[in-house]
Amino acid sequence: MIRRRRSSWAAMLLAALAACGGGGGGGGSAGNSATASSPTVSGAWVDFAISGLAYSTASASGTTSSTGGFTYRCPSSCETVTFKVGGTTLGSITGASTISLRDLPGGITDGTLSESTLRRAQFLITVDADADAGNGIALPAELPTVMANRSLDFNASSFDADLASLVDFLRGDGRLAADYRAALKIPTRGVARSIAEQAEALARGVLVDSLTASTNPIAEVRKYVLRVPDTALVPYTGPSTQIKTLYPKGLRPAIGAGLTLTVGAPSSGVKLRVVTARGIAAPAPRYFDGSSARSAEVLVSSDPNGLPSLSTITLSANAAELGPLVTLRAADGSTFSGRPTPTDSSGSDGARNLDEALQPRSPEFDQRGLDPAGLAESESGTWVCDRRGPFLLQFDSQGRTLQRLGPAGNAGSLPDVSRRLPAILESRQAGLGCGGVAVRSLSGEVLLAAGAALDVSGRTGNTSRLLRLVGFNPRSGTVRQFGLPIRPNENAFRILDLESLSEQRMIALVRYRDGGPSGPLRWEIRVIDLTSASDLSGKSLTSGPNSGLALEFGTAAEIESSAGALATTTTLLELGALGWISEGAEGIARVDAQTLVVMGQANGGITSRIRGGDPALSVAEHQVDRNGTITPRPAGSTTAPSFELVPSAVEARQTLLWSLQLRSPLN
Q1: Taking the mean position of all CA atoms in its chain, how far away is CA 621?
Q2: Backbone angles phi, psi at 319, to 5 degrees
């Protein structure tokens, strides 16, 4: 039996918080007993560092500094400080050394950011001088005058319409700079919440939601932004001045493709093992080589910190900190790269690897190309699955492979791959070969979850009611298959990560679009029970119009009548209700019976875009030829589109970790 030393996370946090003391400012008002002869005291906005914001007390007035600083007096009790933008009052608060939006009166509802707080965040992000709240909120010098007669009520039912009306007014006022007016954009409430939470977590180390509703399965959420040491940054040497300006020391590595509790974690802290993705990669136009067009990506750096690597994250009451990176290596010591395996070989989905000029990199392919998607630790070693092959790799304590398993099938062989996984896995959707990996606690069987439904003969990727789990027992070499049901409302269903609870049960982080291709995204944590699940190995449909074909062609009833029972799944919680909006959710770990950790992968904080292209198409829906010419161009345009790497949206730049404290143990 695999035994893990699990610390009491809740007890550790309480002890650490008691040692550190409280922080932040308070709400409400105080008596105006200060006089002009009392010494001034300094305070500051710590979440958005709001500059250019007018403030006043009973004895003084001014404008917040470039770091969000202001002054007040405390002869016996501290003055009330009122903050305004023109005719709009942001709020009033008792003076304190540090304050944030949540400290304003009514800033918290049911233990989390209130509606009025989110509206204040929307307003501030909207009117920011450079439209980038990631570097703080700076109000244009002209804005207070322009807004002198404009008032917003952050508690009004008409707030959304009022804010939209204000933006229309600002866009038409020539006293404001033209480029500022053109950039005015209202963020959604969800985006504003995410930015505000990240800003406070960056300033204070963590943001804590203590949820008061007893019907909520979560009692507390601790929201961290991962601290990455300079030694782990990935140098960027490309042409983007925006990226170089925003990340002068380098890009953060693509941490978070898989997550698990470190085996034998010391009782003094919580340590998590984490694996990176293939590296920092951005979508590129499809590459046309003269005969066929293939999907393509720009892999930004070949620096060691940008290669597939293992690391450790230490969680404390007030910080999540990344440790040193250990590059994954083959048995002979050579490093795995993030480049795709050669076209038509095992593990290849046909993708091309381009540079920022959209030309094939040299070398473009690698027989040891790896794109990790899941991570598990056990007494047999560290297990990593690859989303392209899919491959299942076993590593020793030094990060060197003990074995690399791939699917049997018709694709060309690779020299160090043992083809012992089911051949049907070669029907994986591109980039979705594996979503997560877990180890069963008693048998040691390693479970690999496909990242999505298999696309058998190119016909089942969007219709299958089945997602496959493959089990490999390193003790016996036995390979088995199980099925997870995909519900009718779950479009583009994805397994993002897997974690073991016991021999028969595990938890999965999943994502899907609810109701159809354009439905809202849902992120859920589900409990999977394999107690009654049948082995699907070698089974096909025995009834229905597709009898004799793969199970992926059947209805839910046809699958069960042909192959036996699928696993049962139960939704534990939905992350969106807690404020999660990151599409890069990729890791889940169980710390103890009442504590789960969820992690996002931010891809170094960059993305790509097409300038002058068809606005209805994504980057990957454009095409580039061998001469670097991008098509299509908008009707009537005489200029070919151009490609560039750019910083991600503010809310998508940071690597996030959430620690979720359950009200009841997850047995």
Answers
A1: 23
A2: -165, 150
